Amino acid sequence: MRLDKPRVAPLNDDQLDDEFKNIMGDSPLNIFRTLGHHPKLLKRWLVFGNHVLAKSTLTPRDREIAILRVGWLCRSGYEWGQHVVIGKAAGLDDSEIERIADGPEAEGWTAAEAALLRATDELHDDQFVSDATWSELSQHYSTEQIMDLVFAVGQYHLVSMALNTFGVQLDEGIEGLPKR
Hints:
This protein has 180 residues and is mostly helical. It has helices at 18-24, 30-35, 39-55, 60-73, 77-89, 94-100, 111-126, 131-138, 143-166.
């Protein structure tokens, strides 16, 4: 974690209104408790976030490989920790999750997974997917899937920036970035 205490403290249970509870349930994560300070932003952001996380044309496994890579590149312990759990549910094993930190050149990735990781790195570093990587992606993914990839990387950069800047602390039972 970049900050050992929040800059924007998560709302406690007494501060959560009925609308928030109806949307988030009884045990909202710290990210939602923090964004609850700005209800209009939270409500609108959830629409886009829901597309990226639940309605994307990418497989859940591919989506999580990209999201975890963003979390790693942005040094977002909260993002990494939450998506380790989601990634495992999407079929990633511990060795694959560990290998995400090593990037697209690590042994063991399929050509499609390496292209996905390479595109994520390029978007992070240059906000642009090179022609060579685009060509490789196009051999494995549809145009819609590539578009969903670009928007997923952008979404999770935004989320990582917010999490890091606001100092959102890990939820109970979640581990942050591994020491490397």
